[in-house]
Amino acid sequence: MADTGRNLRNVREHNRALLLTHILRAGGLSRVELAERTGLTQQAVSKIVPELLDAGLLDEQRQPSTGVGKPRTQLTVRAGARHALGARLDRDEYRVLRTNLIGEVEETAGGPLPAGFTPEQAVEAIGATALELADGFDVLGLGLGAVGPLDHLAGLVRDATNMPGWHEVPLRDLLEKRTGLPVTLDKNTNSAAFARLWPHGDPTATAVVLVGTGIGVGLLIDGRLYRGPRTNAGEFGHTTIAYDGPVCACGRRGCVEIMAKQAPDTRTAAGFLGIGLADLVQVLDLERIVLAGRAVRDEPGTYRDAVSERLEELLPLPHWQRIEVVEDAGGEELVTRGAAAEVLASYYANPA
Ligand SMILES: [Zn+2]
Known about the structure:
The protein is of the alpha/beta class. The protein is 39% helix and 21% strand.
């Protein structure tokens, strides 16, 4: 993207976003600390803070004096000022949750979806549940992490594997129509990765591996979520590890996903995952692998051990290239929390 100029209005909005984000990440800051951390002058801070207070986005609390000098006033984000919804669409179920403005989960709902469900059925289930959870709250929008491939920018589900009848579905627009809320559509793997990134950020090169009804990864590279130009990075489940292996749902042979699916036991399945991950580590210089998703939650130790063993076997790593293999501890709301966080992050980038 070409660089563009910044006029004064943009600078003001930028600084407002900067202050609010710093307050969120620190869990509370004084005006003096805000100036220190942002590099803005105290005058600039004193101008912007009242705008955020007027918008009802901050709470102000006088701290007890700890010695000499004026007692400081602590600014915190007013958690109940706004809310976000996060949803997950899987091949057999859906979940929706509501968070507050600091990303804390307030309420969750969801249920199974019938075999071979249509886009209309999914929109009705997610949309109706979202409206129930939003009722009575100032909700910024709905983030949805769905199975891909999909077009994040256009809000289209392409040809979701193992979901017959799902072809070029304008899921974002359909959900916006049903709920009246702004909707963000992303791959479930990206939402999962974003949950680990927001709000504190993480510079570690990480693959978040989601193992459920399919297998995919969300990539955190250089401190950002990497989606790729067509927003389909991370189709890891459909990389080939056995050239003349069994035919996969995607039409190719010997993909990580079909090899894992047809494995006789969990340990072998996780081992296939490790074979694919060894290549991913080589290509992207990954520092951390986070194992997540339904299958991992059922047997976390088996996954961690089998993946680690494969990596050790396939990558003759020197001491400076160690790879951390961990399970995500966030439970079954990882994707939904991340989807809501995507909504929150875009609000923090331009708080109004
Ligand atoms: Zn495949």
